[in-house]
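Collaborator request, handled under Task 6.
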Amino acid sequence: MYGAAWCPDVARTRRYLDRHSVAHTYRDIDEESEAMAALLELRGKDWVVPTLILADGTVLDDPPIQDLARRLGRPKRRR
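Structure tokens returned to the collaborator:
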């Protein structure tokens, strides 16, 4: 997942992934120049955050949580 600390959508997505114990790698585009370069290569000048790359190679740009949950098999709430 590519993101930035200043983005509320990134925070929301990270909370969802953490809450549901979805393994992921977070790359902050402001902290890692390589992350920004990779995002630009992936999405070009029209990049957005969060950008997620799923295990099957699907790229999601700022997905609504409902769409992300569906693509991940709708993880249930942790108890």
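The cover message to the collaborator said: "The longest helix spans residues 8-19. The beta strands are 2-3, 27-28, 51-53, 59-61. Please let us know whether this matches your experimental observations."
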